[in-house]
Design goal:
The structure holds 2 protein chains of 2 kinds. Chain A is α/β, with parallel strands linked by helices. Chain A is built from 7 helices and 7 strands; from the N terminus they run E-H-H-H-E-H-E-H-E-E-E-E-H-H. Chain A has a single domain, classed as Alpha-Beta Barrel (Aconitase, domain 4), CATH 3.20.19.10. By secondary structure, chain B is an alpha/beta fold. Chain B has 15 helices and 18 strands. The longest helix of chain B is centred in the N-terminal third of the chain and has 17 residues.
């Protein structure tokens, strides 16, 4: 199934302080409050204008820096469930998986699209279509895919300890 | 058959399998997991999992270090929830506010030994490589999973070998070597990799100074970083722990994705300019820039060798800008008192703070005003890192931080020590 998404495009080495400032890490815990500060030091228009289903398209090393999970959850609570970057900070990549946010490595896309452009995503076929070009989504390892399929690591743990079914 | 890297051997051991190669995904049982002020948030995730209790409380360490003593009611509430959790779950290794920074404390307490694997809910967990251990950072949900199950999946990383040779000149330290490497590799030059060090330089550095190197490799995107342990390391850990350990060394014919060589004999002090740790220049390119605040401390450079360096520069001098000194642990502070270093620093006009992370990530204890510049011994200088978006942060070694405090400008310490 193909889904269509509006893009928010950012550059290289956007660190976790830019995505969710350290000054808020021990004072905010409500999802809506966390989402309200997403990207506030990089793009003041984002938190007010982002819509569910939008995607982030970024350059190299998106999410480098701190291990803070709010740098993923702030975007997730704002309605982002796919992030496409040329590469990811390694802890950030893991945090995406664990939060059920799909991280897609695509080195070229950030050079082709601008904020506000639209792209098409076909998760089953594993493709992104943008500006009339098609990009393959690299497959994830079975371990990682299982966490994503469960909707994140917490859901997987709930299944294991409480017998909950996946959402 | 080619040899194995440190990371391949260390993760095979931690997974209980005979062999592993880069690219393998393993279920790893770490020897220790640790978290800090984020432990209350991890607790809230844990409580949603349905897991009955922390499976191995004897392998869990929690320390309060990121905002200590609590600067606000909310921070205090956060700490209170953590203390309650520690009691309830009988967490074996709990360290109160003021004991020190997590990476320093697990080292001092003998909770990490050569060849072991430790995972921390902190991105600078690469630090543990200073003792020849595998240290990597994880997120909060992963730490909750580690509490619940004792294990986690890790992909065995490809490795980079960095050979450092030569003798750094006086006032040129492990910090400068680290910054020089970061400048060369870039912020993603070590992404997903194990950075494994070799060469004759590192064993000549004071033991505590070595820790700066694996700590800062997090800024190149590394999963872990490794210094080969020598007798000095064994003496250090044996003074703290009787647990059996077995050091791990990479094979001479291990496969490295890349190899770099750095000759540091002619190196001058290095500075990371705002707003990235890999934005590195020699100090001569930036000397004279005005700074309003100098900060000596953090897991990167808050140890006794760092305080001695600052005292050497500050002896008989007086600062012209605010100087905040925060030892990385209570033990270091105690030693600095005994050596008379704290007196020298106070006489020079320094403020001394409670051991912990201090103003490094903008929680408290030295947040700059808008547009005020800070010279810091920390590891990150991101936009807004110290709590004020428009306040630029320069990174340098402890001699540079002290010398810059004396003049109020970024200053080559050799000018004051000549």
């Amino acid at each position: 199934m193909t889904t269509h998404h509006r893009c928010w495009v950012y550059g290289d080495n956007v660190n976790t302080d830019m995505i969710f400032p350290g000054r808020h890490t021990y004072t905010l815990s409500v999802p809506e409050d966390i989402a309200a500060h997403a990207l506030e030091d990089l793009d003041t228009t984002f938190a007010a204008s982002v819509r569910p289903g939008d995607v982030i398209v970024a350059g190299w090393n998106w999410g480098c820096g701190s291990s803070r999970e709010q740098a993923v959850t702030a975007l997730k609570y704002a309605g982002i469930d796919v992030i496409i970057a040329a590469s990811f900070g390694r802890i950030y990549f893991r945090n995406c998986i664990n939060q059920g946010v799909l991280p897609i490595v695509c080195p070229e896309l950030h050079t082709l699209v601008n904020t506000g452009d639209r792209l098409a995503l076909d998760r089953r076929a594993g493709t992104i279509t943008a500006q009339e070009q098609i990009f393959a989504i690299p497959p994830l390892s079975p371990t990682v895919q299982a966490i994503l399929d469960a909707g994140g690591l917490l859901s997987l743990l709930q299944h294991r300890f409480k017998g909950d079914s996946y959402p | 058959m080619t040899g194995r890297t440190f990371a391949e051997k260390a993760l095979a051991r931690a997974a209980g399998v005979p062999d592993a190669r880069a690219g393998d995904t393993l279920d790893v049982t770490p020897d220790l997991v640790f978290s800090h002020d984020n432990s209350a948030a991890i607790r809230r995730i844990f409580e949603q999992t349905g897991a009955p209790r922390i499976l191995h409380p004897e392998r869990v360490a929690i320390m309060l270090d990121h905002a200590v003593p609590a600067p606000t009611t909310r921070h205090a509430q956060n700490h209170a929830e953590i203390r309650e959790w520690v009691r309830e779950q009988a967490v074996a290794h709990f360290f109160e506010a003021g004991r020190g920074i997590c990476h320093q404390v697990i080292s001092e307490e003998g909770l990490v030994l050569p060849g072991e694997t430790v995972l921390g809910a902190d991105s600078h967990s690469t630090h543990a490589g200073w003792l020849g251990a595998f240290g990597a950072g994880v997120g909060r949900t992963e730490m909750a999973a580690l509490w619940a199950t004792g294990e986690i999946w890790l992909r065995v990383p490809e490795a980079i070998q960095i050979t450092v040779t030569g003798t750094p000149p006086p006032t040129v330290t492990a910090k400068d070597i680290s910054l020089r490497i970061l400048g060369e590799l870039g912020a993603d030059g070590g992404l997903y990799t194990s950075i494994e060090f070799a060469g004759n330089t590192i064993i000549t550095l004071p033991l505590d100074e070595r820790a700066t190197i694996p700590n800062m490799m997090a800024e190149a995107g590394a999963k872990n970083a490794y210094l080969p342990p020598d007798q000095v390391v064994f003496d250090y850990v044996q003074a703290r722990q009787t647990r059996v350990f077995s050091p791990i060394y990479p094979d001479p014919d291990a496969e490295y994705a890349q190899r770099y060589e750095f000759e540091v004999s002619g190196l001058e002090p290095q500075i990371a300019l705002p707003h990235q740790p890999d934005n590195v220049v020699p100090i001569s390119d930036v000397a004279g820039e005005v700074v309003h605040q100098a900060f000596l401390g953090t897991c990167t450079n808050g140890r006794i060798t760092d305080l001695r360096a600052a005292a050497e520069v500050l002896h008989g001098q007086h600062v012209q800008c605010r100087l905040i000194v925060i030892p990385a642990s209570a033990q270091i502070l105690q030693q600095a008192v005994q050596e008379g270093l704290i007196s020298i620093l106070l006489e020079a006009g320094a403020m001394i703070g409670t051991p912990g992370c201090g103003p490094c990530m903008g929680n408290h204890m030295g947040i700059p005003a808008p547009n005020e510049a800070t010279i810091s011994s920390a590891n990150r200088n991101y936009w807004g890192r110290m709590g004020t978006p428009s306040a630029p942060v320069y990174l340098g070694n402890p001699y540079v931080v002290a010398a810059s405090a004396v003049t109020g400008r970024i200053t080559d310490p050799r000018e004051l020590l000549a």
